[in-house]
Amino acid sequence: MFKTIIKEIIEWILLIFGFLYWIVFGFSISLVSRVLYVILPPKKGILWGQYLLQKMFVVFIGYLKITHLLQLEDKQLSILAKQKGAAIIAPNHTALWDAIFIAHRIPDILCIMKGSILKNPILGGGARLAGYIPNNSTSQMLKLAISRLQAQDRLLIFPEGTRTKTEAQWLNPLKGGTALLAKHSGAPVIPIFIRSNTRFFEKGWPLYKKPKFPLKISIHVAEPVWIEKNESSQAFTQRLEQLYLKELSSPHRLQRIPYE
């Protein structure tokens, strides 16, 4: 009993230090990035923004690993990071920090994200400098994203549009944005399957609720999927959704468990 209490206290302390790191360094990088955004030309600014954010993500995840708060299987992302050319990297969206796991391995990735994040004091400055694309306006987002894909960049987009809902068995119905990007850019979609033993940071998870540690997360990279010549965006979205459902519902030690 005493050992259990001590373990709980230590985990709380380590978790709080993780949050403090995120707040302090996130705010500092955001502040520096806002200055660099004004003084650097756009191309150099994007490189600096991606570099600063990726280093922050690497240190944060390294801290979680060293303190045994996190066990992460993501070697396939390192292989993906070495590949070149336009690609639409499309993970399922289990938790708030999914993008961090992808971006810390693929430093040159451009994220499509909620426009409100650009106003966030912790992430906003870095995200703007790194050239991340807000989704406030669907038409503007598609225009910017397609132009980046045509320039051979790699984009990160969550096909669900938001984090998987608590009551969803495997994932939310996929939105059509990923298919539209594939159709108008000709770039392949690379599905990524994220599995976890926890629902920590899922939609609606209260920050005061401590999860059971260590958090175990597995990230699997699938083969690229191209939209076919005469395939509609709707049909491609449905085909993509079936691919996710088939993979995420298959037996796995970190298979998503029903919400109780």
Question: Can you describe this structure?
Answer:
The protein has one domain (about 1-250). The protein is built from eight helices and seven strands. The chain has helices spanning about 1-40, 40-65, 75-80, 100-105, 125-130, 140-150, 175-185, 235-250, and strands spanning about 70-75, 85-90, 110-115, 135, 155, 190-195, 215-220. α1 runs antiparallel to α2 (about 40-65).
Q: Count of DSSP E strands?
A: 7
Poorly predicted sequence stretches spanning 5 or more consecutive residues: none
| Amount of helix | 40-55%
Query: Main sheet?
Result: 7 strands, mixed
Structural class: alpha/beta
Write down the domain tally: 1
Order of helices and strands: HHEHEHEHEHEHEEH
End-to-end distance, in Å?
Answer: 26 Å
Output the strand order for the largest sheet.
1-7-6-2-5-3-4
Measured by DSSP, the beta-strand proportion falls in 5-15%
The average pLDDT is 93
Round the Cα radius of gyration to an integer and report it.
19 Å
- Outline, from the CA principal axes? globular
Count of individual helical segments: 8
What are the key terms here?
260 residues; alpha/beta; seven-stranded mixed beta sheet; 47% helix
Topology diagram in text:
Layout: H1 2-39, H2 42-66, E1 70-73, H3 75-82, E2 87-91, H4 98-103, E3 110-113, H5 124-129, E4 133-134, H6 138-150, E5 154-156, H7 177-185, E6 189-196, E7 215-221, H8 233-248
Helix pairs in contact: 1-2, 6-7, 7-8
